């Protein structure tokens, strides 16, 4: 349908191009607010690291006190969440309120744009409603395409990772589909008065292209629903890209030349994202750009070794990588010799100072299962190879790194919660801060490397055998703390390491430590039991870790299935059986802080929901006691969904 005719029809109405400008003015304001907040947060980090006062994370000027108060209020509203809903015997978590408020506001805005000053009951205005909704649909396309990319402008300006924006991408795409459906419905309604629908679809070129675009978009929306897309990650990725290209072509053919600017913008954003990703991937994976990175002299930079660990987990190690990353980021891993034409995201479990990239990958199905099987087979071959040959290493390709959050070194107190495989996210964060402590203590804390004084690291695992995943790193962290206190005894640096084992009848962790060498590489099983409970996702969350909701509160922040909590080697760690009381742990840590605090959680939805609720409740208590000038709590919930 020639949409430019709407300019003639709407002489006494709002210009549809003006409607598109209103939409993008509104979106630009929201993006601008996020960008401004991100800029202020970056300046706060810069200021705090150069503040030599005893409380650098506490706001001192009037401006930053007002900003801190506004931030507290925004976090109260944004982090609040509804109670989980029991659906078909499973708990469904709705997540925080703020994203839903944005989606609701976006839906209301598009509804006003579609129907303002129009009478949907007047049959002589049905075609104009069709034109208006068509322009509104086209206006949303660039935003949907931007949010779909891993390299996108909004994420750069707002300081948000693509995985957070992907949720908005899906819901805005559903709003776009709804507008497109209303657009088509009102044209059908108008044609239906004369029994003209079939004739238009058979003979009118613009109608044919528009109907094809709607059919493709409908398939995209349906196939993007979680129960469907979880059935096959590889198929979903391929069909999603192909269908979006088909949708874009159909829309381009459907609209008039004067209306194609948003379509061209969408195509440009898609090409930009792919071009940047491919160029960067070529740079980090071609050895010609990293001649001094390692001993390999082949075409490709990265060669990985695969080691089986307890719990059907494979450790993938890449020495001398060609990419740089920050703790807590993730990369996409591809190994065509094991899982052809597949690329999956995994959290980087190591820090840059290690000189290597390590992924811990739990076997589920598809590529992760193949990685585990190869690691087990490779373990057998290495055991038979007394010369320790590295011929079993495989060429791998990396893309990234991705993932953004506020720098944690600017907060006075830091609480890290991990459930199962979620430790791959929190462990690098812990090691990075402690490493900065050690470096600062050796050079007299000039310049200041961080302002963090208190850290409480909590790791919840089902079996004590899982401790071997990061046993060496935890003991190294404890030794570094002893070094810091010896080199700088006057500087307050407090670290608590807590491990909770939820398995009934858990064994003493001293025995695990004594036999850690036996727990490192997993024994080669005659039969491997592999979990196959869904599609692939970044390996940070262990869905089998029990929820801490039912934990009773104790003075030690621990709800145990046994009446004991003991110290073990090294002495800075504590072991508990059962589930931790998240509320008590956070409350105890906040009692000693003197500035803004940070709470980070990565694990199953139940743990994330419990941490989020505890942070909101404690923030409300602090606001009620001291007003909106209460010291803030920054919350980061690391999740990944595709």
Automatic annotation (TrEMBL):
The keyword Methyltransferase does not apply. GO terms for cellular component: plasma membrane. It comes from Aspergillus versicolor CBS 583.65. This is ferric-chelate reductase (NADPH). It is a multi-pass membrane protein. Residues 520-532, 549-558 have a biased composition (Polar residues). It is found in: Cell membrane. SUPFAM superfamilies: Ferredoxin reductase-like, C-terminal NADP-linked domain, Riboflavin synthase domain-like. The lineage of its organism: Eukaryota, Fungi, Dikarya, Ascomycota, Pezizomycotina. One of its GO terms (biological process) is copper ion import.
């Amino acid at each position: 349908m020639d949409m430019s005719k709407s300019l003639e029809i709407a002489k006494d109405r709002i210009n549809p191009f003006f409607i598109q400008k209103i939409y993008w003015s509104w979106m630009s304001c929201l993006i601008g607010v996020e960008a401004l907040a991100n800029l202020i947060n970056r300046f706060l980090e810069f200021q705090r690291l150069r503040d030599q006062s005893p409380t650098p994370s506490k706001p001192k000027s009037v401006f930053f006190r007002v900003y801190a108060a506004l931030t507290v209020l925004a976090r109260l509203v944004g982090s609040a969440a509804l109670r989980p809903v029991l659906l078909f015997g499973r708990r469904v978590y709705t997540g925080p309120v703020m994203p839903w408020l944005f989606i609701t506001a976006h839906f209301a805005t598009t509804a006003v744009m579609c129907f303002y000053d129009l009478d949907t009951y007047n049959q002589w205005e049905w075609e104009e409603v069709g034109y208006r909704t068509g322009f509104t649909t086209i206006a949303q396309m660039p935003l949907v395409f931007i949010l779909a990319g891993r390299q996108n402008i909004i994420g750069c300006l707002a300081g948000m990772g693509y995985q957070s924006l992907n949720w908005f991408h899906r819901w805005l795409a559903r709003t776009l589909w709804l507008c497109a459906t209303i657009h088509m419905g009102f044209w059908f309604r108008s044609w239906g008065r004369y029994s003209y629908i079939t004739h238009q679809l058979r003979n009118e070129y613009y109608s044919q292209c528009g109907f094809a675009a709607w059919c493709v978009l409908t398939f995209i929306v349906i196939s993007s629903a979680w129960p469907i897309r979880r059935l096959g990650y590889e198929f979903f990725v391929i069909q999603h890209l192909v269908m979006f290209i088909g949708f874009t072509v159909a829309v381009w053919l459907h609209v008039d030349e004067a209306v194609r600017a948003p379509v061209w913008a969408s195509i440009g954003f898609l090409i930009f994202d792919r071009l940047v990703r491919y160029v960067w991937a070529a740079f980090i994976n071609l050895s010609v750009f990293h001649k001094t990175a390692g001993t390999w002299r082949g075409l490709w930079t990265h060669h990985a070794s695969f080691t089986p660990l307890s719990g059907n987990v494979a450790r993938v190690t890449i020495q001398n990588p060609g990419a740089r990353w920050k703790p807590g980021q993730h990369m996409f891993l591809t190994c065509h010799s094991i899982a052809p034409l597949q690329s999956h995201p995994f959290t980087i479990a190591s820090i840059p100072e290690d000189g290597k990239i390590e992924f811990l990958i739990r076997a589920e199905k598809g590529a992760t299962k193949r990685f585990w099987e190869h690691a087990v087979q490779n373990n057998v071959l290495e055991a038979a190879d007394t010369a320790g040959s590295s011929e079993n290493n495989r060429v791998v390709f990396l893309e990234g790194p991705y993932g953004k959050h506020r720098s944690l070194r600017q907060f006075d107190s830091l609480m890290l919660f991990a459930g199962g495989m979620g430790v791959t996210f929190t462990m690098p964060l812990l090691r990075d801060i402690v490493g900065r402590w050690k470096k600062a203590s050796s050079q007299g804390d000039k310049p200041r490397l961080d302002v963090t004084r208190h850290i409480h690291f909590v790791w919840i695992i089902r079996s004590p055998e899982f401790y071997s995943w990061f046993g060496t790193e935890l003991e190294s962290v404890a030794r570094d703390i002893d070094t810091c206190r010896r080199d700088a005894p006057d500087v307050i640096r407090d670290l608590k390491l807590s491990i909770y084992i939820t398995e009934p009848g858990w064994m003493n962790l001293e025995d695990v430590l004594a036999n850690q060498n036996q727990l490192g590489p997993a024994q080669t099983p005659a039969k491997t039991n592999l979990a196959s409970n869904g599609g692939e996702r970044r390996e940070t969350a262990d869905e089998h870790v029990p929820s801490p909701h039912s934990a009773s509160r104790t003075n030690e922040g621990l709800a145990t299935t046994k009446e004991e909590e003991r110290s073990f080697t090294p002495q800075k760690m504590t072991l508990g059986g059962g589930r931790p009381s998240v509320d008590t742990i956070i409350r105890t840590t906040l009692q000693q802080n003197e500035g803004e605090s940070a709470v980070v959680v990565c694990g199953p939805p139940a743990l994330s929901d419990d941490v989020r609720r505890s942070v909101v409740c404690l923030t409300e208590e602090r606001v009620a006691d001291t007003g909106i000038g209460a010291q803030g709590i920054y919350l980061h919930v690391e999740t990944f969904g595709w």
